[in-house]
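look at this fold:
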Amino acid sequence: MKQKRMKEEQLIQELRDGQDKAFSFLFREHFASTLHYVTNNSGTREDAEDVFQEALIVLVRKLREQTFELNVKVASYLYAVVTKMWLYKLRSRRGIYEDSDLLDNHMDPNNNFEVSDNQEAQYAIVERTMTFLKEECREMLKLFYFERKSMNEIASVLGYSQDFVKVKKSRCMNELRKKLLQHEEFQDLVKL
């Protein structure tokens, strides 16, 4: 019994550290249940892969939070996130929500709300979508929204004037917003 608990603790630490072998282990041991669930509920293998990847992002983010306490096995938590995310994705296929302020409402650095599973799923989609932006835009948005740096700090880090950073951030944000407006899953999560 102690041996299994140690393995679980080791897995958690390796996930926090971002070690590839932990992700490979989870994929090897637990992707099959995700694939089974998604394909038995109107999805494809590609859908299952997307959901599994997004659920891993949510899991790791939660594990890295100082205040988060995992009271179930990693596999159980991961499966719960997968099932919730897949239900959101199924709902997203019903229609598209277009609100030009949808991203600003959910990435406002002054928002002091507790992060729900829905918001975790949104952040996972935003992070994945950001990979399609140019490196400079990704860095700028990451500094502003995720690291909560001021425009002045961003200008200093990137070596630009504060005015340039304001304009560039706005352009990058518009580009990200455009991509997210095309992302049905994100739109459905925002509607909830």
Q: What stands out?
A: The chain has a mean pLDDT of 77. The chain has ten helices and no strands. The domain at 102-191 is CATH 1.10.10 (Arc Repressor Mutant, subunit A).
